[in-house]
Design a protein that fits this description.
Blueprint (H helix, E strand, L loop, with lengths): L8 H6 L6 H7 L7 E3 L5 E3 L1 H10 L4 E7 L9 H14 L4 E5 L4 H4 L8 E2 L2 E4 L1 H5 L5 H21 L15 E3 L8 E4 L10 E7 L4 H8 L3 H10 L1 E4 L5 E3 L6 H7 L7 E5 L4 E4 L14 H8 L4 E5 L4 H16 L5 E6 L1 H7 L20 H19 L5 E6 L6 H13 L4 E5 L1 H4 L5 H13 L14 H13 L3 E4 L1 H12 L6 E2 L22 E10 L4 E6 L18 E2 L5 E2 L3
Parallel strand pairs: 3-14, 3-15, 4-13, 4-14, 7-9, 15-16, 16-17, 18-20, 19-21
Antiparallel strand pairs: 1-2, 2-12, 5-6, 6-12, 8-9, 10-11, 12-13, 20-21, 22-23
Length: about 575
Amino acid sequence: MAHAAFPSDLEIARSVVPRPILEVARELGLHDDEVELYGPTKAKVRLEAIERLEAERPRGKYVLVTAISPTPLGEGKTTTTIGLAQGLRRLGHRAAPTIRQPSLGPVFGIKGGAAGGGYSQVVPMEDFNLHLTGDVHAIGAAHNLAAAFIDNHLHHGNALGIDVDSITWPRVVDISDRAVRRAVIGLGGRENGPPREAEWQITVASEVMAILALASSLADLRARLGRIVLAFTRDGRPVTAEDLRVAGAMTVLLKDAIKPNLLQTLEGGPAFVHAGPFANIAHGNSSVLADRLALVTNDIVCTEAGFGADMGAEKFFDIKCRQSGLRPDAAVVVATIRALKMHGGVGRVVAGRPLDSALLEENPAAVEAGCANLEAQIENVLAFGVPVVVAINAYPTDRPSEIEVVRRAALAAGARAAVAAHHFERGGEGARELAAAVWEVASEGAPSFRLLYPDDLPLVEKIETIAVRIYGAAGVDFAPAAARALERAEALGLGRLQVCMAKTQYSLSHDPTLLGRPRGFRVPVRDVRLAVGAGFVTPLLGEMRTMPGLPSRPGGEQIDIDERGQIVGLF
């Protein structure tokens, strides 16, 4: 029953000889001069190709892949996104996934790689999980350039009158490093700049990352970077990247990063990989440009939103769709039996440790109790008028009785179908039934698609709307710092910004210990940060941090390189 003899993801990835990426590009209708090769198996696509194809072709169907509230191990959402695209191609449809590039933080931390798993992966797997085409490094460089400009401005006289205590722009690094969450910089004498307290975030939490994922063009990227608020003056005026004359140089660093990356699945179909914002502290979706490119080169596109539907899906609808004008046709909610048991009060999942035996025992009652979380997440998607298909990401230890419990609960909650999928073990062939259900539902579309809140609703009420209608909270409590930040945003004329909540991914609430479908809780907002260039504010809920820490046994301990130069230990 166990996967003892099943090959590792890395072994599976290396067992396939990828097609030349230029061949994949040509099948999509891309011209050779629109493709910039990064070796034989990966490429960037020039933005001119998107403009040309959008003028020539209709858009394909647009399917969001989201999930229940996950365990620390994840529920296989990326694997399902890739497997679904492979399954759709098995049915004769031109299909592609659009997914995010992983952060090095999780790769060397608790999660490992993020290229999918089993026989539903994007290749080359090593490149995908490490540096790919350097986009994340370019984002980090652009972000830190603005940080350096701030301290340089202070050092050379502070002509703009920046209030040092009001600087909101952190520095970033794409490694989980709790020691630099808060630090004092400028030590060592006058020539090292004025000493002040500073903060580090993980690069994928950067507003620059969010902007790259939401930008519609190079000109839009440049304008958004210019609107970034870095600090405030002593009399309360915002200081932007444009004011510091750094936005142009930031854009130059991102001139290649803005181009979507083209890779392929294990089965040789196209896969678009671009941007990498986390969904617990950012908007958690791949880039608008990659989705637009995929939609005019395919019949149907499967795009992944991070974590549960209360997080990445809500932000997909309310932020990404609102800003891009793209409209979804259907959504897939991924669930696993083991996670539903955990939400039902059985077992415990700890990353890096063997799976709790209680999660492997047949227990339909626990699954039924845990389905409260699934029901809530289905309702969250239906609140936007988008039809739902539930994908049960099947494991060998799942029992028919447990799968039937999930199927009944999903249909009762309003899902159009609930299908057990075996794409991890069997690739596209194992996702045929899921693909058929998704194609049928997506073909009908979502004519009643709607956003959760209007632009002109006050920021406080937008936050309360998300907390009450999506999380199921009884209300919201704003700490004094959060209340002041919201008042200032409204006074600056920024009340039409969207809301990008930062909270735990493990619960519908702000508290990771409240599993299932908690009721009666109140959401504490400790602070609110501006991301004007990205077009939203970010309320920080509970103890949510923007820089993760490494676990006691980091995944990086297993990663090495052998005498032949082959990477080992990626998973």
